Amino acid sequence: MENKQSFGAYIQKRRKELGMTQKEFAEQLFVTDSAVSKWERGLAYPDITLLQSICAVLQISEKELLSSAEDVEGRRAAQLARQYLRLLRNYRLIQLCLYGLTALGCLIGNLAGQHTLDWFWIVVTAEAMAASLTLLPTVTPPRWRGIAVLGGFTGSLLLLLAVCCLYTGGDWFFVAMAWILFGAGLVCGPYVLRRVPLPSILSGRKASLYLAGETVLILLALGINFLYCGVGSWFFTTAAAILFGVWLVFGPVFVRQLPLQGRRGLVYVAAGTGFLLLLLLASCLESGGTWFRSAALWSVFGIALVCLPLVIGQIPWPAPLRRHKALLYLGILSVWLVVCLAADGWGLWFPLPSLPVALLCLVLPWLWLGGMRYLPIGRWFRAAACFLATGLWTYLAPWALDRILMASGSLTDHPYSLAIEANLFCWTDPALVTGNVLVLIYLSFALAALLCLGIGLWRRAKRRQ
């Protein structure tokens, strides 16, 4: 309250505007007229328990009473709120009248024209769909208004399609329903998940819920389509392809929202491999082939070739094996390669010539692993040893490959010889060009080995100074 004088003057002004005497005002407040006189003369304040009663009698707000002035903005806002509520009530009434009269007219027309109710239900469900957009928002709390409109529109649309399907004698309703639910979820799913209260365990995984729900809906739509068509066996292949594609693109989103600290890459690769094998199996069964085993083995080998370092890094190996992850990687790949060759060509080109050829090719990565990781010498000396070993392997591998092919029955007119015919000063004779190239390759490995050896000796001498 600003002061007693202004407070009393404001009470007196409002009392006179309402045409009340001090005695009438006091009787409504159950106080004496002398108390009212003291208030109006600025001699005393009313008891705080009388404030609400004074406001009610004088038809003012508590803010106006305490500030001793009219709250023009507050009165204007209250007036606008009352006008809005009145307009909203009239709008609802007009909507109800329009929908009701339209439904009544169609009811009478349908009964009078066809002596039954058939297309009338199409009109009613169409009106329900329209009302979900125009009338439903006016009767729903603001917090749930968006969800109510989406749910009401989708439900009334499905009801309209069901009525149309029955009216036309069709059997396409479930196909249409499945694709409408998928499309509605695809567009409105993020909004709904943001508005709906979820348990704490799911509130931080809305992206995963959205993707999982859409995947289920599209599989449901495809399944219903498959049953509706009744031709072919494409569903399982298509479903497997969708699962594999969704996981390949959006799998990191699922994995990131799982409580898998340090194991997310492992889970992503394992699940992706499983979906790929499922796709291969479904494709093999659909085509009636027998190639699944071969395709599965080589697919796993290719995935391991790329992703096995990530997987090995996230597996809790025993302490003695933690320092030998490269050895584990190469060992697993080597064994799996032999298994693939054996399963794919047993009795045809396994064990000869594929097994010795594979072992010959594996010699080079094993040489590099053993040299760079386990030789008890400096890094530059290891590199020199690896370059020398690579040059020696390059020199001997063609001769060994030639002998393997000859042992398996593949004869050649010109067996490979370790004696190389070369003349670096002559590049016009075709018989010497191959030998010249090989000599240059061997010299390159030798020079690389000498360079690494020289750097190693220089660094060792520098450390000893």
Automatic annotation (TrEMBL):
The chain crosses the membrane at residues 93-113, 119-139, 146-169, 175-193, 209-228, 234-254, 266-283, 295-315, 327-346, 352-369, 381-401, 437-458. The keyword Signal does not apply. It holds the Pfam family HTH_3. PROSITE patterns: HTH_CROC1. Keywords: DNA-binding, Membrane, Transmembrane, Transmembrane helix. Residues 11-65 form the HTH cro/C1-type domain. InterPro entries: Cro/C1-type_HTH, Lambda_DNA-bd_dom_sf. Gene3D superfamilies: lambda repressor-like DNA-binding domains. It comes from the Bacteria. GO terms for molecular function: DNA binding. SUPFAM superfamilies: lambda repressor-like DNA-binding domains (SSF47413). PANTHER family: DNA-BIDING PHAGE PROTEIN, TRACRIPTIONAL REGULATORY PROTEIN-RELATED-RELATED. This is Helix-turn-helix transcriptional regulator. It comes from Candidatus Avoscillospira stercorigallinarum.
